[in-house]
Design goal:
By secondary structure, this protein is α+β, with helices and mostly antiparallel strands. The chain is built from 23 helices and 13 strands. A hairpin with a 5-residue loop joins strand 12 and strand 13. Bound molecules: adenosine-5'-triphosphate and magnesium ion (MG).
């Protein structure tokens, strides 16, 4: 069947790989996510976010890896996973192949995989062996979801033996074949399914969803790194909140701390929702940038993770959670450690969770002291988390919203005017104090801090002369 509107895919540079393989006498198709994305663009362009685009392009062929390599003699070819039938070809920019095989700036890499089936799995992780197969249909059968099991030829013909188009039209995620069998083969597919539901806004078909829950224990067999990659993608999707609301039980074997928040009532007039619903609402509300999006979403989702462990009901029947930020930090570190998150991510999330309850006020001195202690960027992020936290209670007043905006402006102003709030901005350094007769040692640091406090408090100008004069007063 020929599908119109596949232009977005057929305009891609990778098209030349199909041309070259066909010219060499082989079959070759675009396959998987790129076909799905192109169809989504064609069918639902108006409802997709502006940033939606076709991701990496994958190509499938009946050429064996060695034959693919031969067809691309003269190109730089990397044997990415030759055992699994995958080679990566580098397409140089500007259509120029350099003599040294090096690539230009707009070079594109493309993975080409031989038609294969995955054989049997005995560990829910790796196929025992892969087998090259003769037909495209057999290759498509090994793919996870029907919407990921379509291929498209260079002429725009769609090969769709498992009803991917139909499911895509109604935004349904359904496994190719029996879902229990497919999740038992490879439990990572459970995480991929949740991720696609979040990122693409698809519903998970009933039987597929039930099988996800039944087989969720197998997630323990999947490497933490791969789970974390999928979890981060899940949180970055527009429908992350709804996926967590519906499927947190599926995540329980790998994130029991998150599942424990579900249905945990707060018994406090300040909060309308249980702990999980509150954290999800806050996560949906938090303002992020493209740089901090991933860790901010995670920090907000985890910010009250310590509440179930610190819950206490007073004799009036009101719930309290004394010390919960610290407990949440401890649990966030535990979760992130288990998921093998990198150190920088762990530390950033830990500081945001630890200080999410910080008391803010429209007070320049107070803000500068915290900017000095935590860093301006961290404090700005904590303010956004605190605002989201308030929105997530379901009880935020417009006055409080205004107060947050004022504080946000005040901090931006301090930064824009390059006002002094840290030792690196101070107009004198340790060497100046030593030149003035102080002995090197910890007193120098303490004195600098005292001088910085005087500048922050408006008692002294941030100028060398004024600071030296104040130094003499402090030392006399
Ligand atoms: P995206 O690139 O947007 O993350 P994708 O669907 O292209 O999504 P990839 O990981 O690039 O995902 O994989 C390409 C294709 O390979 C998929 O569309 C699917 O057909 C197949 N695939 C990937 N991982 C699995 C898996 N664990 N089990 C079965 N098929 C898979
Ligand atoms: Mg892909």
């Amino acid at each position: 069947m020929k599908v119109k509107h596949m232009q977005k895919l057929l305009e891609r540079k990778e098209k030349m790989v199909l041309e070259l393989l066909e010219k060499a006498g082989y079959e070759a198709y675009f396959v998987g996510g790129c076909v799905r994305d192109a169809l989504m663009l064609a069918k639902t362009e108006e409802t997709l976010s502006e940033t939606f685009s076709i991701g990496d392009v994958d190509i499938t062929t009946n050429a064996l890896p060695e034959q693919t390599k031969e067809a691309f003699a003269g190109y730089r070819v990397i044997e990415t996973g030759i055992k699994h039938g995958t080679v990566t070809v580098m397409l140089p920019g500007e259509g120029v192949i350099r003599n040294n095989g090096c690539c230009d700036e707009q070079a594109v890499t493309v993975e080409i995989t031989t038609y294969r089936s995955d054989g049997t799995y005995s560990d829910s992780r790796h196929p025992d062996r892969v087998e090259f197969v003769r037909s495209l249909e057999e290759d498509l059968a090994r793919r996870d979801f029907t919407v990921n099991a379509m291929a498209c030829s260079i002429r725009g013909e769609l090969i769709d033996p498992y009803g991917g188009q139909e499911d895509l039209a109604v935004k349904k995620l359904r496994t190719v074949g029996d879902p229990d069998k497919r999740f038992k083969e490879d439990a990572l597919r459970i995480m991929r399914g949740l991720r696609f539901a979040s990122v693409l806004g698809f519903e998970i078909e009933e039987k597929t969803a039930a099988a996800m829950l039944r087989n969720s224990g197998l997630l323990a067999n999947v490497s933490a790194e791969r789970i974390f990659v999928e979890f981060k993608k899940l949180l970055s999707g527009n429908n992350a909140g709804d996926v967590l609301r519906k499927y947190v039980d599926v995540l329980e074997p790998i994130l029991p701390e998150l599942a424990a928040m579900k249905g945990f009532e707060q018994h406090n007039s300040y909060h309308k929702y249980d702990v999980l619903e509150h954290c999800i609402r806050a996560m949906e509300a938090v303002k992020t940038t493209s740089e901090n999006h991933q860790y901010m979403k995670m920090a907000v989702l985890f910010h009250d993770m310590g509440k179930p462990d610190t819950y206490f009901m007073d004799d009036k029947g009101v719930g309290h959670f004394y010390g919960h930020p610290k407990k949440s930090e401890e649990l966030a570190r535990r979760v992130l450690g288990r998921l093998k998150a990198d150190k920088a991510t762990v530390e950033r999330i830990a500081v945001l969770v630890k200080y999410h309850d910080l008391l803010f006020d429209k007070d320049e001195r107070l803000l500068k002291r915290w900017m000095n202690k935590l860093g301006a960027d961290v404090l700005q992020e904590i303010l956004e988390i605190k605002l989201a936290d308030n929105i997530g209670t379901g009880n935020m007043s417009p006055e409080l919203g205004q107060k947050f905006e004022d504080i946000r402006d005040m901090m931006a102003d301090i930064i824009a005017k390059e006002q002094c709030f840290s030792l690196k901005d101070l107009a004198i350094k340790g060497d100046d104090l030593i030149a003035a007769g102080m002995k090197p040692g910890p007193e120098v640091g303490n004195m600098l801090q005292q001088l910085l406090d005087a500048v922050i408090d408006g008692e002294c100008e941030n100028e060398k002369e004024a600071l030296m004069a104040r130094l003499s007063i402090y030392r006399s």
